[in-house]
Amino acid sequence: MNGPGKGFTLVEVLLVVVIMASLALILAPRINMEFASPQVKLQRTFEELSEMASEGERVRLWIDQREELKAQKLVFSSEEEGSTWQELDLKWLYFDGKWKAEVKECYFFPDGSCTPWNLSLQKGSDEFPFTITVTCTVYEGRL
User: Fold this and answer.
1) Domain annotation for the chain: domains and CATH numbers
2) Model confidence pLDDT, tens digit, residues 4-40
3) Contact 34, 46 (CB under 8 A)
4) Alpha carbon 58 to its chain's center
5) Closest C-alpha to 120, from 137, 135, 100
């Protein structure tokens, strides 16, 4: 028979398991986002922007002067200035590398479609080409 104070009680073990499971649930999406392929991240970005466009926003993806991929929405002002593009902070829109494309922007439409787009991600000496179809589907490579 064991003496008092040796080992852990069932409640203590269960408490540690619950804490570990909670931490895993919090960290799993962030780890998934870090290790997701560029194609998966790009597809999720297109899905998010397509949904915004179907809700009435005018949105686009474009490649800026630093060759970074940026998302923007068109904002109309009540003054005589007209409209301006405002940058959006999207969850999946973080890539290491430089983007290149012949056409620098891709527009999204209320019916859930977008302009077809060919672009590529340069990571060091590696190049990842992508083709985006009218249905906002991202394919790795050129079609």
Assistant:
1) 36-140 (3.55.40)
2) 668 889 999 999 999 998 888 887 766 666 667 888 8
3) no
4) 18
5) 100
